[in-house]
Amino acid sequence: MPERPTPEAVLNCPMVESLTPPRGLPYDAPTVGIFLTSMLSHLWRERHLFDGKRPYGASQWEYDVYAALGKAGFVECSFDEDGFIEEVDSALADELVAGAIESLTPKVK
């Protein structure tokens, strides 16, 4: 496994085309960072209607991020012949995403 990516590299990691409908970039987000900020905006707009399990109408949305991190080589990830994730180091992926999110927080003195 290569050197651990920086939070900035994780945020700038390109999203990959979703294999589940609707196809294309998940939620029109070209990067992991835009995907995450789009989700936060969606949470803010929807408030009490926000569905944490299906924030965009589909469950397992985190696998779109895992696929992006796997394709970038940031986490160990294998794909089946149709392009779906077979195995992924989700613990490391979750850790990288959490670090990327925390890096967005301004440092308060």
Brief descriptors of the model:
109 residues, mainly alpha, two-stranded antiparallel ribbon
DSSP helical segment count: 4
Gross geometry = globular
Q: Round the mean pLDDT to the nearest integer and report it.
A: 85
Count the domains. 1
Order of helical and strand elements: HHHEEH
User: What is the total tally of β strands?
Assistant: 2
Helix content: 40-55%
Low-confidence stretches: none
Query: What is the C-alpha radius of gyration, as a whole number of Å?
Result: 14 Å
Brief synopsis:
Helix content is 40%, strand content 6%. By secondary structure, it is mainly alpha-helical. The chain is globular, with a radius of gyration of 14 Å.
Write the layout of secondary structure elements.
Blueprint: H1 7-11, H2 32-46, H3 62-71, E1 77-79, E2 85-88, H4 90-103
Antiparallel strand pairs: 1-2
Can you walk through the features of this model?
Helices cover 40% and strands 6% of the residues. It is mainly alpha-helical and 109 residues long. Strand 1 and strand 2 form a beta hairpin. The protein is globular, with a radius of gyration of 14 Å. The model has no long low-confidence stretch (mean pLDDT 85).
